[in-house]
Every structure is written in structure tokens, then in C-alpha cells.
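Tenascin-X, pasting as requested.
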Amino acid sequence: MVMFLRLHLEGSPAAKLPRDCFEVQRDLKNETGVYRIQPDYARRPIFVFCDMETDGGGWTVFQRRKDGSIDFLRQWKDYKYGFGNIGGEFWLGKSALVLVKYKLERSEDTSQINKKSDQ
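C-alpha cells follow.
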């Protein structure tokens, strides 16, 4: 199971690193994988997994579960700061999620605000 959001941040265009996976894709990096981004309110860059295939790409993956190699039965602090391997199974972490100001894109089904994939 993969859970992700399409993030598009608003703010200064002068950032050296992309601010989200949408900008990673816009800068012609169309391969799904791990990228370093610098959200506007982050003190330092963070690594995220970008899905460039689902529904046009540009998705920031915040949870990825594939093979059961990571135990998701965890304490609150693990969910706050994140755990796992960003290239495998992981939870990005609440602290990383709140760094980004995002706009949830509406799909044809207006009740759907995020996507779930079995990749």
C-alpha cells in the first residue's frame, strides 16, 4: 500500500532545491524515486519519495508499505519523526508533513483528496 499527496507549494521561486515533488517533476526529473527537497518552512532539506507515474506524477509519498519488512506498530514519537527506509517501507513523519503548506487537488470525484496505490 502506498499513500501520497500531490503537493504544490506557494512561495518564493528563488529556492535552489525544489520545494515538493511537483517541482521535482516540473524540473524534468520524471523518474520515480528518492529526491531531496527544501520546503519553505524547513530548516534544512529533507528526503522524500516522489511518485512520477500515478495520475500524471508529481506525488509526494508519505507512507509506503510493500512487503512487511518494517513494523508499523510504533510509539507516537516514531510517527512524529518518521521511520523506515525512504527507498523501501516508511512513514515520512508528522514533523515533515507539517513543514509543507499544500493544496489538495480535486479529482473528478470531488470527495477524493488523496490517492492510494498498491505499488
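Note for the archive: The two ends are 7 Å apart (CA to CA).
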